[in-house]
Structure formats: C-alpha cells, structure tokens
Design a protein that fits this description.
By secondary structure, this protein is mostly helical. Helix content is about 75%, strand content about 0%. A hairpin with a 2-residue loop joins strand 1 (about 45) and strand 2 (about 50).
Length: about 250
C-alpha cells in the first residue's frame, strides 16, 4: 500500500518535474548569493575556512528540509482539504499509517533530490568538488533531518488546518533552523548560555557534525540517532491524531 501511495504521488508530480528541478537550482543560487555573500563580509572565515565553504552544509540541510516540509504540507492539504484527489486510494484497504508513511517517503525523496542538486550547485559556484567518501559522510550525517521535517509537517497540519497557524509554525521552524541552530551563523557568536541550550538539540549536533566533515574532521553519530527516534515518536503521534482527522 505504501508503494501505491508513492506511485500516486509520482503520477501527480511528474508533470511539474522540470519546474521542480528549476526551483531546486534557483533556491540554492538565491541562498548562496543573498545569504552567503552578505554573511561572508561579516564572518569572513571560520576556523581558517572560507565562510562560503563553511555554509554549504547549512544550505544542504535547510533547503532539503524546506522542500520535504513543503511537499508534505501540500500532500496533506490534498488529502484532508481535497479528499477527492485521492479517492482511488481511499477505496483500497489502506491504513492511516501507510498513507502517512507513503507521504513521508515521497517527501523525503524530493528532499534528497534537493540535497543532491544543492551540493552540485554549491560545488560549481565554489569550484570545490568533494571526494566520494566525503559526500557519503555528508549524506549519512544529514539524511535524518529530511524525514524529520516531513513528519513535523504532517503533525503541524494534523494539529490544525488553519492556514495562519501553519504559516506561523513553518516560519518559526525554518527561521530557527537557518539562523538559530548554526546553519548560517556560527554558534561561537551566540552567548554561551544560549549555546549550552542549543547543543542539547539533536539537530544542532547534526549541523555541527556536517560542518566538521567539510573541515575534514569527525562528524556526529548521536545527533542523527536521537533525531531518528524523535521522528519515529512524532510519526506515532501523527498516526494517533490521524484516526480522528481522516475521512474515508
């Protein structure tokens, strides 16, 4: 059944494939130009590394998470606001968790595509091409963030279908991710008291680990592990809430 949901989303999506790829490219370019260059004049370098190189993991994580989150919100909107769009699926003996899992896997696939395109674009812009081992380490380090934000989008939508709430929550998530957890502003510029709190958050550990990999240092295993467990917990909560929300 999960495969059915996945195929259904692909059929709906493939007409917009080229627009999606163009959007992935433009988003990366915009982040690189309008965040990278202004911040470079402020931070210059970080631990001896040019800021434009240091910020690459931040672009990968932020944009892939944003894409997975946005796709999930759109799919949940189709599911609950326009139920006729998945009428053929609802006629099958599909469980709530299978629908949510299919949406999460599809959105995570989209997020991974965004991740790959962002890496390629930033590598070309910085004239820096990473070794295969480094690329694999970056994937392993950051991959858990993508399904986390997909499941977070599901939970956010299920809590309330109010558009103002969804917009406010979304802005809060991604402003915090981009500027509060170390993606684009090094944590060493934050007050020590705030850094101590931020380092408790698993996402912060993932971001810091990815930046360390860029600087040929060790990554972080614990951040991804805790994020995985939190994602699983949020998914279970979403399944429970969906029992009251879905109308088949």
């Amino acid at each position: 059944m999960i495969n059915t949901i996945y195929k259904h989303e692909w059929i709906r999506f493939r007409a917009s494939l080229w627009y999606f790829l163009l959007t992935c490219f433009l988003l990366t370019l915009i982040f690189h130009l309008f965040l990278g260059f202004p911040f470079r004049s402020v931070f210059i370098d970080f631990n001896g590394m040019n800021y434009m190189y240091w910020m690459i993991p931040g672009i990968l994580i932020t944009l892939s998470s944003l894409m997975a989150y946005t796709v999930t919100i759109m799919n949940m909107n189709n599911l609950l606001v326009y139920p006729k769009s998945i009428e053929s699926i609802c006629k099958t003996p599909v469980a709530n968790w299978q629908v949510l899992a299919g949406i999460t896997i599809w959105a995570s696939t989209i997020g991974i595509v965004q991740w790959i395109i962002s890496l390629c674009v930033t590598s070309l812009l910085n004239n820096e091409f990473y070794q295969v081992i480094t690329g694999i380490r970056l994937v392993i380090q950051t991959i858990f963030v993508i399904p986390f934000f997909s499941v977070l989008a599901i939970l956010t939508f299920l809590i309330s279908k109010n558009r103002f709430w969804q917009l406010t929550a979304s802005l809060l998530y991604f402003i915090s991710l981009a500027f509060g957890l170390g993606c684009f502003i090094p944590l060493k510029f934050f007050p020590v008291e705030i850094v101590d709190i931020l380092k408790i958050i698993p996402l912060t550990s993932i971001i810091e680990g990815a930046q360390n990999i860029i600087m040929a240092q060790k990554g972080s295993f614990t951040g991804g592990l805790f994020t995985f467990f939190i994602t699983a917990l949020l998914f279970l909560i979403s399944v429970v809430i969906s029992n009251k929300k879905f109308r088949y």
